[in-house]
Write a sequence for this structure.
């Protein structure tokens, strides 16, 4: 499975959306379901999927689909 596919699947699973709905603006300001519980679920799934451990500062910054891609690049994951 490609990294982008893993990334998209994590968002789709956590937020119960179709992959087609995902774009860089998909984030906590636009998604009613995006709360602390969903964010932690997303973090956990991303860490497991990509075998990484996000720093607490980065966890706080992951507030959108687009920002998540930027953060993963910081950890050497190409999306």
């Amino acid at each position: 499975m490609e990294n982008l596919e893993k990334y998209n699947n994590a968002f789709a699973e956590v937020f119960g959306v179709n992959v087609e709905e995902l774009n860089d603006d998909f984030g906590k300001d636009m998604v009613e379901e995006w709360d602390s519980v969903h964010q932690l679920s997303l973090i956990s799934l991303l860490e497991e999927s990509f075998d990484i451990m996000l720093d607490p500062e980065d966890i706080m910054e992951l507030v959108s689909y687009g920002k998540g891609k930027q953060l993963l690049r910081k950890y050497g994951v190409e999306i």
